[in-house]
Amino acid sequence: MALSETSIRINAAQGTISRHIYGHFAEHLGRCIYEGFWVGEDSPIPNTRGIRNDVIAALRKLRIPLLRWPGGCFADEYHWEDGIGPRTGRKRTVNTHWGGVIENNHFGTHEFLQLCELLNCEPYIAGNVGSGTMQEMQDWIEYMTFAGDSSMADWRRANGRQTPWSIKYFGVGNENWGCGGNMRPEYYADEYRRYQTFVRNYGDNKIYKIACGASDFNYNWTEVLMREAGRYMDGLSVHYYTVPHTWAHKGSALEFNEDEWFITLQKALRMEEVVTKHSEIMDRYDPQKRIGLIVDEWGTWYDAEVGTNPGFLYQQNSLRDALVAGVTLNIFNAHCDRVHMANLAQTINVLQALILTDNDKFLLTPTYHVFDLYQVHQDATLLETNVENSAAYEHNGESLTQISVSASQNGAGAVHVTLCNIDSRASAQVTLTLDGLDAIRPVTGRILTAPDMTAHNTFSQPETVKPAALQTFSFTAQQVTVQLAPMSVAVLSIV
Ligand code: AHR
Predict the structure, then answer these.
(1) Which of 48-61 are b and which e, b meaning 16 or more Cβ less than 10 Å from the residue's Cβ?
(2) Whose CA is nearest to atom 5 of ligand 1?
(3) Burial of 474 (0-12, 13-18, 19+ CB in 10 A)
(4) Predicted local distance difference test score (pLDDT) of residue 474
(5) Is 35 an active-site residue?
(6) What does the DSSP assignment read for 84-116?
(7) Which of 175, 272, 305, 388 is catalytic?
(8) Is 297 a catalytic residue?
(9) pLDDT (tens digit, 9 = 90+) per residue, 404-419?
């Protein structure tokens, strides 16, 4: 088997990697909320106040910092008052975006915020601009966060919650250039200015306001929003999905060959361009980097699994998805001066999921394991990584950098390096030189890989792809040399 060589120098500290880069997203879409998170108190599936216990345990282990809800496209037709009060009396609405199914609104504001408390994560709520009113948005925030005795706060208490919740992250609309109202950037910028006025801070609750940002490479949207509304926002979002082929024929989650492996990684790596170019525009209007670039939807998007409701966006998750997650998170870390948050789409049973369920059955995907390996970067200090000589992954006359890397140092002084070898055939020998560390301390490592690029976990074989101890490394006073299998994601801990 081929063995390439890459050398990387790791040195100076470069800023903090916000834990919110490791955020997630849960929409009322397919089986994400219903069955994925919510089974109801009377379900035979073990649950805590209606939320699956297996899901709570798995997500707590990942230390997920933040969860975005209720959409997505669903957010701009969601009316929060439909989802409070006794469940039996809640309104039944049509989920027009996602399969036309009936939404019984059994999972609403109280259930979501209780879920965040169980997960010990921050809520990030997306408000309705497309079909909602400013009054509705203002009332929702008052309902959730006001401590006094207004009608809204009293209504919350009557529904069982005495103390207000603390809500920091609030999105003013979602994809308002598309499903959220088909607006032009100039029109949305004005709408944003108006709606955000009514996103009030009550008491000590200080809201971080996120404006709807661009899709992919639509830099004009970012330009207009920054110019017309930059001073009214704390964050500006962007969405970028990795679609191997076209939106009409995206490609299969499991039936793919090396061509599609290569194309998928190539497209995932374009996140670098997306983040860099939107950041360059933001830099012109906000050189202090006060406003965060919020990548609040990202991940792979394939054709829905054959035999499932196409509106439910259910897809399997393979080793290829693990590599997409690994290289993308490395990119976000590198841009942590501007990327303040990111949210993988979506947590359970939808798109690039962490968890798949089938009624009471449950499994962790390869993507879950990447987030597990990478959680060491949360709130750590980014270290500079200079790739001195780098091997290439070549296929069909095209070339990608074979190794993706990110390094950080935590408060206790431990250094963590995450590495991806995207080559489907060649192993990689990577030499890491750590400048500024007196002597390399004990090193341990974990690696996620498999011999087959389509390797994935199933309900009957849930541990086909899971991390193992990394044995193939050695270290001297200043250097660590590690051998990475083809198609692998690894973390080294230098403690
Ligand atoms: O994540 C699925 C959908 O993708 C979201 O609802 C929407 O915001 C995006 O187009």
Answers:
(1) eebbbebbbebbee
(2) 72
(3) exposed
(4) 86
(5) no
(6) SS-GGG---EEETTTTTEEE---S-HHHHHHHH
(7) 175
(8) yes
(9) 999 999 999 999 999 9
